[in-house]
Amino acid sequence: MGKRFTISFLIIIGLLTLTFFVACARQEKGVAIEAKPLKMAEAKPQKEAAPAAKTEEVKTQASTATQVTKEEKVPSGAALYEQPVKPLTPVECARCHYPIFKDLKESKSKHRFECTKCHQQFHVYNPIKKNWEEIMPKCERCHQLPHGKDFPKCLKCHENPHSPLSIPFDVLVQKRKVGKKEVIQCALCHKNEANEMNAHVSKHNEVGCQGCHAEKHGYIPNCLDCHEPHVEGQTYEDCLICHSPHSPTVIKVYPEETDNAVCGSCHTEIYENLKTHHTKHSDLYCATCHTKHGYIPKCQDCHGEPHSADLHKKFPDCLKCHIDPHKLPTLTSR
Ligand code: HEC
Ligand code: HEC
Ligand code: HEC
Ligand code: HEC
Ligand code: HEC
Ligand code: HEC
Ligand code: HEC
Ligand code: HEC
Ligand code: HEC
Ligand code: HEC
Ligand code: HEC
Ligand code: HEC
After folding, report:
1. How far is the CA of 322 from the centre of ligand 7 (A)?
2. What distance in angstroms lies between residue 185's CA and the mean position of ligand 5's atoms?
3. pLDDT tens, N- to C-terminus, the chain (334 residues)
């Protein structure tokens, strides 16, 4: 009788242990890394909320695991080796590699996903084999050549893969041989701006890209850092209405409501004449007649031929009598 009881007791214990292992094995499956090669879509971080949800998940998994072990007692001896082995999370890697974790965290980079998505292998460096290059993640696995074939060596600029947007400025301003010419690297990525500058050579070509976009990649300068405005109160945004920084001598088409005083800052005499010698032309903007810088309108564009055909035939030039559109002689002034 005693013997039978011991046997059935052992069977029950056996079954319980089996159930425990099966449960553990299931859990392990849930977190196992899939070894298949990673596609861009998989590496893409989900919405900001996603990582938080993941840590939640990890937390609950961890707490159920401890609950199970509490009920079943802490494993010891051979049972230690029957526990599921879970892959390290970035936070766990960070226990030893904190500076790297911190770089990623502070970079705000889109590289803030699992370390092992990049480091498919790690802790396999062997100085005798000199295999560092070989084991380190390759950018090409997830990226193409985003800047074209002129720039294949990613780490030259993206020095730190754990903070890929910290790019040293002095590397960017280095020159490269293109054919026989030495070209600043900026120009190879920003062809539109470089072409614009070459097509309309001005004194800004001497200033150079890095003279304006100084110190930090992407810095946008203010015209007023280097120039006085034409008239008081003109802002940086105003400058861009008429000038492009990369072809400043080409004056763009300005709006009709452009303040006459702006034109008057250079064409002082005309401005003064039009203002002080009041006629109906004085109520117009300079830009109403001069729709583009340098454009000279014809009186007929607006007035047609208001006098007798005979008169116009005899005096085709209106200014023979009207003298100056900015200082029209009027009956009252005569
Ligand atoms: C986007 C891919 C990517 C991610 C994500 C990434 N790494 Fe790296 N890591 C690299 C590359 C590439 C190198 C090689 C850099 C070199 O050779 O200069 C590297 C190098 C390293 C090195 C050795 C060089 C050093 O600076 O000490 C360690 C350690 C390392 N990574 C740990 C981590 C850890 C830990 C994480 C996660 C917290 C992580 N990496 C996330 C791409 C990545
Ligand atoms: C218990 C501490 C510890 C943990 C946890 C740890 N590492 Fe390391 N790791 C080291 C040490 C020590 C080295 C060798 C010295 C060094 O390069 O900092 C190393 C080196 C590396 C290297 C460069 C050399 C090589 O052989 O690959 C990479 C990459 C790396 N670890 C990635 C990781 C990743 C990814 C994780 C998490 C999945 C991780 N490590 C977790 C301690 C740890
Ligand atoms: C495991 C895949 C993977 C590897 C390997 C990888 N990247 Fe990325 N990288 C990504 C993903 C995913 C993004 C986000 C792309 C997006 O949103 O369009 C990204 C974004 C970037 C960005 C954009 C800036 C940012 O961080 O938000 C830069 C720069 C970059 N990677 C450079 C590199 C360089 C340089 C390497 C090699 C050292 C590299 N990457 C290796 C997956 C990877
Ligand atoms: C000569 C320097 C240089 C080299 C070499 C270089 N990059 Fe970049 N990369 C940059 C700069 C500068 C940016 C713009 C960063 C910014 O937006 O502030 C950039 C942006 C990126 C971006 C962000 C996406 C975008 O187009 O806005 C990715 C991804 C990227 N680089 C990947 C790579 C990869 C992969 C390589 C190697 C094949 C590489 N880069 C080589 C300088 C470089
Ligand atoms: C390897 C390619 C690369 C090089 C070299 C490079 N850039 Fe860029 N640059 C980029 C990319 C990519 C962007 C982001 C483009 C975008 O957001 O549309 C960018 C953005 C910019 C912007 C716009 C920032 C904004 O707010 O819109 C400026 C200005 C700029 N770069 C100037 C420069 C100058 C000046 C240099 C040389 C010192 C330079 N870049 C070198 C790739 C490069
Ligand atoms: C005289 C100063 C100056 C010089 C020289 C200059 N830039 Fe700019 N650049 C600017 C200003 C100002 C802006 C902002 C214009 C705007 O907002 O419309 C700008 C804008 C840009 C942009 C962003 C364009 C966009 O649409 O977002 C790029 C890229 C750029 N410059 C590249 C270059 C390159 C490359 C060179 C050299 C070949 C260069 N710049 C030379 C002043 C300059
Ligand atoms: C970093 C300083 C700097 C910035 C920023 C700058 N310029 Fe200049 N610019 C110069 C220098 C230097 C010259 C040549 C000397 C001079 O005429 O004052 C010049 C000349 C010019 C010229 C005459 C060009 C010629 O070839 O005759 C115009 C027009 C001009 N700038 C407009 C602008 C406008 C508009 C902006 C803003 C979009 C701007 N500049 C931003 C430095 C700058
Ligand atoms: C309504 C159009 C207009 C606006 C707005 C404008 N400019 Fe001009 N700017 C011109 C014209 C026209 C010239 C003369 C072009 C020529 O010589 O053919 C000029 C010439 C210049 C010159 C060359 C040197 C000189 O004084 O002759 C500089 C520098 C300049 N502008 C800077 C600026 C700055 C800075 C702003 C913004 C505060 C600005 N401009 C706004 C139309 C404008
Ligand atoms: C920074 C000084 C400056 C400003 C501001 C300026 N101009 Fe001029 N303008 C000039 C110069 C210098 C010339 C002669 C060289 C040339 O043709 O570019 C000129 C030429 C002209 C001409 C042609 C003259 C001819 O004999 O063919 C007209 C018309 C003219 N400007 C109208 C305007 C009007 C309208 C404005 C305001 C919207 C204006 N200008 C603003 C400097 C300026
Ligand atoms: C009613 C239309 C009209 C208005 C308003 C006007 N102009 Fe004119 N402007 C003309 C015509 C027409 C000519 C050609 C006169 C000629 O052939 O001698 C001219 C010629 C010019 C010239 C070149 C000839 C010269 O006399 O030097 C300049 C510069 C000029 N205008 C500037 C201005 C400025 C600045 C303003 C505003 C303060 C202005 N104009 C307002 C019609 C106008
Ligand atoms: C862009 C159109 C435009 C152009 C070009 C133009 N004018 Fe006018 N002009 C006007 C307008 C608008 C009036 C006011 C009409 C009204 O109120 O009845 C006017 C009025 C006049 C008057 C009456 C002035 C007064 O105070 O009573 C004379 C004279 C005149 N223009 C002559 C000329 C001559 C000469 C030219 C060529 C040198 C010329 N205009 C070019 C639009 C223009
Ligand atoms: C032989 C001299 C002469 C010629 C040439 C001439 N005008 Fe006049 N114009 C006058 C006189 C005189 C007046 C009336 C005086 C006044 O109103 O100031 C006048 C008046 C005008 C007026 C004002 C009409 C009003 O109702 O107030 C306009 C507009 C005008 N002329 C346009 C022109 C145009 C356009 C031309 C050329 C196609 C032209 N004129 C050629 C002598 C001339």
Report:
1. 39
2. 10
3. 444 555 554 445 544 444 444 343 333 333 333 333 444 444 444 444 334 334 444 343 444 444 444 555 778 889 999 999 999 999 999 999 999 999 999 999 999 999 999 999 999 999 999 999 999 999 999 999 999 999 999 999 999 999 999 999 999 999 999 889 999 999 999 999 999 999 999 999 999 999 999 989 999 999 999 999 999 999 999 999 999 999 999 999 999 999 999 999 999 999 999 999 999 999 999 999 999 999 999 999 999 999 999 999 999 999 999 999 999 997 654 4
* Residue 313 is assigned to a structural domain of this protein: yes
Domain hosting 233: range is 168-242
The number of domains in the chain is 3
Residues with CB under 6 Å of ligand 11 are: 279-281, 288-289, 297, 299, 301-303, 318-319, 322, 325, 328, 330
Please indicate, yes or no, if residue 250 is contained in any of the structural domains.
Answer: no
Cβ–ligand 10 distance for 161 under 6 Å, the answer no
SS3 annotation, the chain: CHHHHHHHHHHHHHHHHHHHHHHHHHHHHHHCCCCCCCCHHHHCCCCCHHHHHHHHHHHHHHHHHHHHHHHHCCCCHHHHHHCCCCCCCHHHHHCCCHHHHHHHHHHCCCCCCCHHHHCCCCCCCCCCCCCHHHHCCCHHHCCCCCCCCCCCCHHHCCCCCCCCCCCCHHHHCCEEEECCEEEEHHHHHCHHHHHHHHHCCCCHHHHCHHHHCCCCCCCCCCHHHCCCCCCCCCCHHHHHHHCECCECCCCCCCCCCCCHHHHHCCCHHHHHHHHHCCCHHHHCCHHHHCCCCCCCCCHHHHHCCCCCHHHHHHCCCCHHHHCCCCCCCCCCCC
Is 128 part of a structural domain of the chain? yes
Query: Best of 139, 172, 188 to mutate for ligand 5, by most ligand atoms within 8 A of CB?
Result: 172
Which ligand is nearest to the Cα of residue 239, counting in written order? 8
Distance 153 CA to ligand 3 centre (A): 14
Q: Are residues 229 and 264 in the same domain?
A: no
Residues 223 and 286 reside in one and the same domain: no
If you measure from the C-alpha of residue 48 to the centroid of ligand 4, how many angstroms do you get, rounded to a whole number? 23
Query: pTM here?
Result: 0.86
